[in-house]
C-alpha cells in the first residue's frame, strides 16, 4: 500500500502488521542513540495547515528516529482555503523530491487530493472531520498494551462524534479489531447515519457501566457553525466523565487536547484508569511503523 489515507483501507491483518512493527520500535527510545537507519537518505515533508501539538511533533520525531531528512511546513489555516492553492503548494514543495508527505488540513478529502498530485507516499494526519488514521492506530496499540486483546470488548466513544475525525477512524479500527462500539452524546452531536456503521447509540451515560473502555472526545468548536449544546456547563453536567461515573476497572482514553472540566474532570485525567499519556507515547512508535 503506497498511501495511508483512511482506516477504511486497512483490514485487521494490516492493522496488526503495523502494530507489531510499532512494538518492535519501542526499544529504539531506550537506546543511547535513539535512531535506526531505516529511512536514511529519504525525505519526509510535514505539511500542517491546522493546529497540532502531538501529531506534528510525533511525526517529526518518528521520521528523525528513522534517520529521514525532515522538512516542516506550517501554514496558517486562513492562507490556504482552496484546493488550487493547496495544489500549488504541494507542487512547489515537490521540487524538493519528498519520498513521503504527511498532511493535516481542515478540508475533508485533502489527503486524497494530494495523493493524486504527487509521486510521494501520502499519510493523512487528519483531514477536517473525516479521518485521522494514525490516531486510531495508536489508540488500538495503546489498548492492546493495556488489555492484551480488544476482541469482544465494549468501547464507548463519548462526546462530539459529529465533528470528530478521531471518532470516525476509531469506529472503523475498533470494529475491525473485534470490539463493540457505542456512541454517546447529545443527539445534535451524534450523526444520523451511525447505526449503518454497526454502532449502538446512547443519549445518556446511564449504561456507561457496561463499557470496558471509555473514549472521551473534545468539543470541536472550530468545526461548528452553530451552537450544538445549550451551554458548556449543561453539556458537562450530562456528559462529563468524572470520578463518580468512571468505574475502577474501566480504561479511560482521550486523543488530546483535553478541555479540563468540560469532557473530563481533573480527577479522572490523573487517575490510574487513564492511558492518555500512553496514547501520546505510542504516537511515536506507531508513526515510525507507518512511515
Ligand atoms: C485530535 C485531532 O486533531 O483530530 N487531536 C490529535 O490529533 N491528537 C483531536 C482533537 O483535536 O480534539
Structure description:
By secondary structure, the protein is of the alpha/beta class. Helix content is 34%, strand content 15%. It contains nine helices and nine strands. It has a five-stranded parallel beta sheet with strand order 7-6-5-8-9, with helices on one face. Helix 7 links the parallel strand 8 and strand 9. Helix 5 packs across helix 6 and helix 5 crosses helix 9. The longest helix is centred in the middle third of the chain and has 15 residues. The radius of gyration is 19 Å and the shape is globular. Bound molecules: N-carbamoyl-L-aspartate. The site of N-carbamoyl-L-aspartate (NCD) has 10 residues, from helix 2 and helix 6. N-carbamoyl-L-aspartate binds next to helix 2 and helix 6.
Amino acid at each position: 500500500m503506497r498511501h495511508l489515507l483512511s482506516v477504511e483501507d486497512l483490514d485487521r491483518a494490516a492493522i496488526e502488521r503495523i502494530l507489531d512493527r510499532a512494538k518492535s520500535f519501542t526499544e529504539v527510545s531506550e537506546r543511547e542513540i535513539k535512531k535506526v537507519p531505516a529511512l536514511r537518505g529519504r525525505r519526509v515533508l510535514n505539511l500542517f495547515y491546522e493546529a497540532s501539538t502531538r501529531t506534528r511533533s510525533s511525526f517529526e520525531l518518528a521520521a528523525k528516529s528513522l534517520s529521514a531528512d525532515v522538512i516542516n511546513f506550517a501554514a496558517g489555516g486562513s492562507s490556504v482555503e482552496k484546493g488550487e492553492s493547496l495544489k500549488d503548494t504541494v507542487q512547489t514543495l515537490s521540487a524538493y523530491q519528498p519520498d513521503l508527505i504527511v498532511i493535516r488540513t481542515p478540508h475533508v478529502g485533502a489527503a486524497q487530493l494530494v495523493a493524486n498530485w504527487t509521486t510521494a507516499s501520502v499519510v493523512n494526519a487528519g483531514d477536517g472531520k473525516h479521518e485521522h488514521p494514525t490516531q486510531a492506530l495508536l489508540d488500538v496499540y495503546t489498548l492492546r498494551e493495556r488489555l492484551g486483546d480488544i476482541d469482544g470488548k465494549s468501547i464507548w466513544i463519548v462526546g462530539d462524534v459529529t465533528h470528530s475525525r478521531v471518532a470516525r477512524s476509531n469506529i472503523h479500527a475498533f470494529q475491525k479489531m473485534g470490539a463493540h462500539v457505542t456512541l454517546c452524546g447529545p443527539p445534535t452531536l451524534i450523526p444520523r447515519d451511525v447505526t449503518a456503521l454497526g454502532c449502538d447509540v446512547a443519549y445518556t451515560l446511564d449504561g456507561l457501566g457496561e463499557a470496558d473502555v471509555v473514549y472521551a472526545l473534545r468539543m470541536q468548536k472550530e468545526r461548528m457553525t452553530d451552537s450544538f449544546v445549550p451551554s458548556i456547563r449543561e453539556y458537562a453536567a450530562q456528559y462529563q466523565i468524572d470520578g463518580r461515573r468512571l468505574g475502577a476497572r474501566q480504561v479511560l482514553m482521550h486523543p488530546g487536547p483535553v478541555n479540563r472540566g468540560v469532557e473530563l474532570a481533573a480527577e479522572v485525567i490523573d487517575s490510574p484508569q487513564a492511558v492518555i499519556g500512553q496514547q501520546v507515547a505510542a504516537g511515536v512508535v506507531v508513526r515510525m511503523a507507518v512511515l
